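Input.
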Amino acid sequence: MHLAWIELRDFRNHRATLIEDVPEGSITIVGPNGEGKTNLLEGMFFLYALRSPRTATNAPLVREGGEVGYARGEFEGLDGRALVEAEIPRKGASRVKLNKSPLRRKRELRRAVRAVLFGPFDLPAVIGDPSKRRDLMDEAVFALWPLRDTVSSGYDRVLRQRNRLLKEWEGGRRGPPELEAWDEELLAAGTKLIEAREEAIARLAPAASEEFLALSGYELIVSYAPNVVGDGTIEERFRAQLSSRQADELVRRTSLVGPHRDDLTLAVRDLGARAFGSHGETWGAALCLRLGIAAAVADEVGEPPLLLVDDPFSALDPSRRDRIAARLAERPGQVVITVADEADVPSTSSAIWDVRAGDVSVRS
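Output.
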């Protein structure tokens, strides 16, 4: 997947940025902190995800003093070209066109454009609570199979309804008569989500471990830790645990079994990465998880995704910094990284973009 050109207008601090010829290979965006490097990377990612990894609303994406921001870009892939145009109001939903036609579903864009972004916001997936790792697993599912975009949200809807039923029940230990029907809904939706997460982690784990081995000299163990365990099929295990925990659920008035209690196990040198890893190890683990997703997507679709890497070197010692720079340079496809220090610009960069106060200059 190749980004051919990009234009940002009134996006963050980019009043009018147009880069007409984005080259293949490794591109480095350099500039002091706060000048707009990450904002440019964020604009590229927005053209794929239609969201920001740093904010839940559109308002911060619009340049101060403006009411609407714009992001436009064109991608080239095995399936042809994809022109993405996004109008981003400070309030309300973005209006997006794909190849000049209004975008109806996000999955249509995710099938046409493939991108993976890493940044400091990924650290909670390693050291944060389990919900952050569940989010990462679901992002991996969506990146690999855009048509499965509803497996997580569908399960969440059923879970909310079932929890509401349990919370409002006042009839004792027999349970509400509607519970059996919601159990079946939970089983169906939860089984799909468990299967998707299990397959996604199986796809990304080998590449993530390989990248971490190259970075640190030892393996990162990545394994899916489902809440539903035991013998039999996923549905059989799920059904058995629901039955065994029903009394507890009626007392506690919430659902105690299902993928909403899943986790992702991460370990280095036989120690849990979250509990025992150094800051450099946790940073490296977060980066390698994203690289694992990128590798899995490349295997799935037959071409590497656009890889966006924000500030990859800041938490690494010089030796690890050199190793990850070499690994990024060796990756096929387009790789865009940001650095704050000129000394961190990899010698293998095919292009260098300087960013100052939202203005971008391309070095010849």
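The mean pLDDT is 94.
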